[in-house]
Structure formats: structure tokens, C-alpha cells
Amino acid sequence: MEMKELLKLGIEEALDKAVKAGTLPAGDYPEVNLEIPPQKEFGDFATNFAMQSARIAHQAPKMIAQALVGQMTYSWLQRADIAGAGFINFFLKHDVIYDTLKAILHAGDGYGKAPFRQEDTVQVEYVSANPTGPLHVGHGRGAAYGSALVNLLRAAGFNVQAEYYINDAGNQMDNLAASVNARYLELLGKASEIPENGYHGHDIIETAQAIFDQDGDSYLHMAEAERLEIFKNRAYEEKLKALKRDLADFNVHYDYWFSERTLHPEAIRAACSVLEQRGKIYEKDGALWLKSTDYGDDKDRVVIRDNGVPTYLAADIAYHKNKYDRGFKTLINIWGADHHGYVARVRAAMAALGYDPGKLEVLLLQMVSLFRDGKPVKMSKRTGQAITLNELIEEVGTDAARYFFIMRSLDTQLDFDLNLAKSHSSENPVYYIQYAHARIYSIYHQAQENGMSLDMDWSDVHWERLQNEEELELIKKMAAFPEEIQRAAKERAPHRIAHFAHELAGLFHAFYNHCRIIQEDKELEKARLALVTAVRITIANSLAVLGVSAPKKM
Questions:
Q1: How many other C-beta atoms can be found within 10 angstroms of the C-beta atom of residue 161?
Q2: In terms of domains, do 32 and 109 share one?
Q3: In this predicted model, what pLDDT tens digit does every residue of 386-443 receive, in sequence order?
Q4: Overall pTM > 0.85
Q5: Integer distance in angstroms from the first to the last C-alpha of the chain?
Q6: How many domains are contained in the chain?
Q7: Looking at residue 512, which CATH number applies to its domain?
Q8: 539 and 521 within one domain
């Protein structure tokens, strides 16, 4: 059993004993919360449970704390001190701390992971960029954070489906076809202009060139409508294939790719029919309007235009209806911050359909600003357009890009320092963490050269030899990992795991600099090898959540 869970159960048992002894009254007491004190002299864990219980017990927090501590006569507890207005600081015996190491070594790559719960279904939809061109840096942040959130929720025991919504219907696809058509005609010496809302990227020229290289001028004498339809499908297939490839290269994988085309027209018509039956749609000026103001939106929204063409909202209503109908307990969307105003109308539509809008969580992704040599970088040197995710990966690598995207909370703007991301120094957080992992493999190599076999049976380790402050701090930090997974999952905050890994790496480097591992004292050497193996496991499991590699060499 983990140290924290053991202590929590011990406090709950002490409360039960105090109630039975009459020193505390029966009542609906709060949940026990434990924190690691900021200063080591305040113990291994601390709780404000006595202060939170004052209203229930109708006693001063210090009296409640005394009643609890008086019942806590456990063999694994060194002592419990009452401090301040009623805080309780706990000091655990080393034996129970060593149990954490045994648990990590036994669990291996399963350490930190909760049992899988089939019934706790979550769908996470993220990126969902239009398949009209390459992914840019903003998409990269959503891709890294979304995939890390999927990994995190799975580690916390949830049954997660990762989904990409392909916006492959509507005006953007017509504009894609028209843009390729214009570039194709240019190659044949024909005057043509890209439409006002068309696409001007270099990738459009490449698509047109590929069509010309394969088929020449065979489309020139074709009716324009027929040519546009062919170009639309050719460009769509090419862009979607490239998009999937770029995401895979960025260590982003989906369980399901949902095509918007499948919603037109039947699913949209069915969703509107349900809204109409429920009296949530009305006609005005020839258009159909959703009564979204009934559910907190600032104004009603058009779902079907006066020309009979569905709006983007209509397709999103049908799509989210499909999500709800698939039976997920929780739906999580990661959208760009520019979609802030869209959240209320989609939730309003779900409420109007009779679904629980509280099941839908929308996380808003803030902007990314790139900096090189302290100056903002906005345009690609290669194309003069916005910097693509591919270009970023080429410059700093997948691991650095992912870590830097994840290390800040999603709702804060991110300043991405390209120089720092490429540096091989302790200032670069991802390098600092990965170096800790690689350094442990270097220690293994030294141990083998010193005659130690790494095919070890850790059951005969003399754990009591681990007495140094650096050793104990490492163990206590690793003990917090399973709870950190749960807390980060609850808060939808994979950046917490990025911070955890960095802090653990810092403690390891401090330990390495103060404690000799390879030495003549074989009992101590083996105990410290067990310790660093637990560190390696915990760092690797942390990086796995982030989708970052754990190299053996640097």
C-alpha cells in the first residue's frame, strides 16, 4: 500500500476510534486530504483535517487534532506533531517509505497506472483541423496536449477514445478545389485567380504540380464543375494523408477519424427534426433558428439558412448528437481560444436536444508564440507562410516540441523558446529529464564493469542502508506519482506530469552528485541500484504520459 493511502486510512481509523471513545462526536466529516509540507522539518505529510472538521465536531481544531493523534499508535508512524491552529504533521518510519521502492520495482512500467475501468468512458476530440493544408504550430500545441491528456486519462484508469473530426464538407473544401484549380491552370499558362477565401500556401502549388505531372493537361478541356470535383477529392486525399503522417510523426494517434461528410444531409436533418419536435427551432426570414437563448446563449442561432444550406452549427449539432448517442460518460473537446463564443451555443443545442450539457467539457487552447534569439518568429524562411508543425519538428525534434507544448497549462499563452528547446543543457527541461534517464543506464554500465549483475533479485536488498536525505527525498517524491496521475487527470492537466518529471529529475541529479553508487560496499551499492532503477521506471512512466521518449543514451 502506498504511504499516502496508508496514512489516510490510519487517520480515518483514528477518527472512528475517537468517535467510539466519545472524544469526538459522530458526524459527516470531510474527506482526509494530505499534502507534502514545503519544508522537510514539518514531516513527510501534513493535513488540515482538524481545521476542516471544526464545524462538524463543534470543537477547536487543536482539540480535534489531539483526539486524532491520541488514537494513532501505529507501528509504521514515528510521530505526529500538532502545529499552528490545528495542522497535524506526520513523520513516517523508514520501513514504510522503503515499501514504495518495492512497489515500484514490482510494478515496473505499470507503476502509477490505475486499474482499467471499462465503464468510465471518455471521448477526447482534438486538433480536428481542416484538411486543406499542413498543420501549423498552434495545431501542434493542441496535438501534444490532447494526446498527452489521452495518455494521462488512460493511466488514471479511464476507458478513452481519441477522435479526430475531419471537416471535409462545406465551403472550405470548395475553396480548396478552386485554389488547386487556379494553380493548375497557371501551370498551363492560363490566367486564373485564387478565390477570395482560397488557399495561397506553397502546398497548393505542389498539389497542382503533382496533378499536372501525373495527368498533364487532360483536365483542361473538361467542364469546370467536373474538374473542380476531381481536384477536390484529389487534394482532400493528399492533405488528409499528409495530416495523418505528420501527426504520427509527432507521436499522435487516434482511435477514430470521423468524417463530417457522413452527417450531410441525413444526420443534420434528423437532429433538426428532433429539435423541431421539442419546440426548440423556429422559422424566421425563411431560415430555421435554434432557441439557444433559452439555455444561456446571448442570441438565437441560425441552423438552416434561408437557401436551405446548413450552417456549421447545424453540422456540429449533428456531430455532438452522434457523440452523445454513442454513450460516452464524458466528452472532452480541445478547441482554439477563438472558439470561445462557440461553446455556449453547442452546449445550448445539446440541452435543447434533451442531453446533459454538463457531460461536454471544452478546453480552450491559447496561442503559441515562437522566439529565436529573443525575437518573435512568425514566418517560415522556406515559404514565407506560417511555420508548420513539420518545420518545428525538423528544428527542435519531436520530444522537445511535445514537452514545451505540454509544460504550460492549456489556458495560458505559451512563449516557445526555440534556442532553449534545442540546447543540450540543464536549462532545457526535457533534456534535463531525459539526461537523468540516460545517466541511470550509464550507472548500469559502470556497475557491470564493476562486476555487478543487473539481472537482480531485489527481494534481498538491505533497504535500511538508504538513510541519506537525498535518498529519502527521492523515494517520497516517487511515492507521490500515482496520486499525481489521478490529480492531473481530474484537472485535465498533463502539464502537472511535466513538472513532476522535472522535479524528480532534479532530485535524482542532486542525489547523484552527493551519493556514490558504484563502490566496494556491495550492500549499499545494490540498495542504491534498486533506488535508481525505481527512479528510471518513474521517469520513463512520466515521459510515456507526455508522449516523450526515454533514451538510454544522450
A1: 16
A2: no
A3: 899 999 999 999 999 999 999 999 999 999 999 999 999 999 999 999 999 999 999 9
A4: yes
A5: 35
A6: 3
A7: 1.10.730.10
A8: yes
